[in-house]
Design brief:
The protein is of the alpha+beta class. The protein has helices at 9-19, 27-32, 37-46, 67-76, 84-90, 142-150, 155-167, 173-182, 189-197, 208-219, 258-273, 283-288, 290-313; strands spanning 24-26, 49-53, 56-59, 80-82, 103-107, 118-122, 131-134, 137-140, 226-231, 234-240, 245-250, 277-282. The longest helix has 24 residues, at 290-313. The protein starts with 8 loop residues before the first helix and ends with a helix.
């Protein structure tokens, strides 16, 4: 039977450090905690310590969730925080980063850094309020992360990131406006200011099909919908609340089973009973006949507005 006894001595020191840092440790930390250089070299040769960066090691065969980012921070030393796209991924404003994507960090200094697999941004405008920790990893705050992303993302990508951050209640408009005003003149500040000044909430699309329909709606200058929002206990892809119209989009990978077909129809019937007309759009319609989709949607919105006006006058 394999022993599950807790490591002792030097191995316990290494294990404790790793447990607090997502499975990674720095050489300087090991030396400061009594691990001698010969012992360290021995652990590397035996595979117990696996080099990630110069002077940074993974402990054991399984990395923690934030091991890549924590290792990059340890490799660059004190004062460095995860930022830009890497921070956006950790905050779930952006999709998860690929294992081959460099980790982006920011330091409040002009001193140079060169590390393989790491991109270091240097600045003198990183304030105490811009820095926080996520599961022990030093990282830019959600508001500062959005400001940094504004300089490197397209306007639509930034809108998506802001929508996700607001949906997760990571930021609010007041705090975001303060960050933007404090950083006037920084790249991307104007784009973020424009998003914050918009009357409609930032739109979030969860699939390519939803993104296509959203761009069609905007190009046709139809009224802006709420996106991925709950109404009467169900989440719908697009909602025009005042008109009582919802749109559900079936992406190109969508496969309807008999059970899901029946479930969709029950949901549509429930929403209809609450005064919400559900229009369904398929990937084939979006790609082969987008103009017809727009016409059908525009007519549905107009008819709903006319019905609402008639009820008001009755």
């Amino acid at each position: 039977m394999r022993s599950s006894a807790r490591p002792t001595g030097i191995d316990a020191v290494i294990a404790d450090l790793a447990a607090a840092q997502h499975g990674v440790v720095a050489r300087r930390q090991l030396l400061a905690n009594g691990v001698t250089a010969p012992t360290l070299r021995s652990r590397v040769r035996s595979g117990r310590l696996c080099p990630i960066h110069r002077g940074v090691y993974q402990v054991g065969p399984v990395a923690g969730r934030y091991a890549r980012e924590m290792a990059a921070v340890l490799a660059c030393g004190p004062g460095v925080v995860v930022s830009h796209r890497s921070a956006g991924s950790l905050w779930a404003m952006l999709p998860p980063a690929d294992a081959t994507t460099p980790v982006e960090l920011t330091i409040n200094s002009r001193r140079p850094f060169r590390r393989p697999g790491i991109v270091v941004h240097r600045t003198l405008s990183l304030e105490a309020d811009d820095i926080t920790h996520l599961e022990g990893v030093p990282i830019t705050s959600p508001a500062r992360t959005l400001l940094d992303l504004a300089a490197v993302l397209s306007f639509r990508e930034l809108e998506q990131a802001l929508a996700r951050a607001e949906r997760a209640e990571q930021v609010n408009r007041t705090d975001m406006s303060k960050v933007v005003e404090r950083n006037r003149g920084r790249p991307g500040a104007n784009a973020l200011r424009a998003l914050l000044a918009g009357e409609a909430a930032p739109a979030m699309a969860r699939s390519e099909a939803e993104e296509r329909l959203l761009q069609l709606i905007r190009k046709a200058q139809l009224p802006p919908p709420e996106t991925n929002v709950r109404v009467h206990g169900f989440e719908v892809d697009f909602l025009w609340r005042a008109q009582g119209v919802a749109v559900e989009v079936d992406g190109f990978a969508y496969h309807r089973s008999p059970a899901s077909f029946e479930g969709d129809r029950r949901r549509d019937a429930h929403l209809a009973a609450q005064g919400i007309h559900v229009m369904r759009v398929t990937w084939r319609q979006l790609t082969n006949e987008p103009e017809a989709v727009l016409v059908r949607l525009a007519q549905t919105l107009v008819r709903s507005e006319l019905r609402a006006a008639a009820r008001t006058l009755a």
